[in-house]
Amino acid sequence: MVDLRREMLLRTLSNDENVNVRSWVAVNPQTPVQVLLALANDSESQVRRCVARNSLTPLSLLTELESDADVRGAASFNRSAPLSLLTELSNDTNEIIRLGVASNPSTPAQLLAKLALDLDSFVRRGVASNPSTPRSILEDLAKDQDNDSPDSVRAKVARNPQTPLSVLTCLADDSDNSIRRAVSENPSTPVQVLAELAHSKAADVRRGTASNPETPVQVLTELANDPDEEVRYFVGRNPSTPVTILTKLADDPVTSSRWGVAENPATPLNLITTLASRPDKFLRQSVAVNPSTPVQVLALFAHEEDDHLRWRVAINPSTPIDVLEMLSQDSFTSVREAVARNQGHATENKVKEEARNNTSPEKHNRRRLIPLELPSQE
Domain limits at 21? Predict the structure, then answer.
């Protein structure tokens, strides 16, 4: 069903004076085709590149954009790009364009096999992280010599849910903490391996295990008492954590450990409401991004003076359209960016995906859960 009010909202934001706002509209799959056609002629190449990355951009427009020297190759990241175009771009001299093809879930196995041998490690990382990469290729990439931690090729393999269990079990014993951390985050990692990683001496590895939704409840219960506050944060954020543990962590003596409970969509509504009433601004910001937060709380937060609180309300997939319409007029540019990015509950899946790929935050970086890096070749 077409959401006419959301479409109208995106139309309005497509004329925003800020290039980042227009770029988020250009890449939003809910943006009407007529708006994409207009944005394809935007004076800023960043906006035009985002149109080229939008999976709903018509093929005729995608072909036209490929002739734009400042946009060429952006379609390599587009899941709807035709095979002929992906094949052509896989041979491009620009490694960022080849990376786009390598990480594109629509890229066929034969192209991925070729790109897995690319001399550029960033391209091989794209193949290693691609959910469409055949398991035989992932097995080979698990032996890659790229050692640039924590984003090495092997780390990407260790984080890929399609990686064979035998490979994950082997990588769980790797001497590199970043590899073991990646294995601990992988939802395909065997539970017995997760139980072992939960006892790692490296706090970073325990944090990964605490964040994994497949970690057994008994292990999460143990990790809820971990001396590392970030481990407890990730337990609180884990949707598989029992309510009794969430209730306990909501009163953790370390403030940052409570944030995970406030962000967790599995947290009971009465507990979310209680956390929303507390004075800690970071705790309230965590509540604001939770898709289970009651809409009346989100509506109240949308009128607060805290710019970053409103920003989180704007990205929340549960925020009502009337609140988003109000926030689209916000003087804080990042709030309007978040509204332009919001896809309703399609946003929720994207946020979860990014959160899985960004689970090693700086302790007090409150933007960490929702990266706002614009899709760009640069």
Answer: 1-72
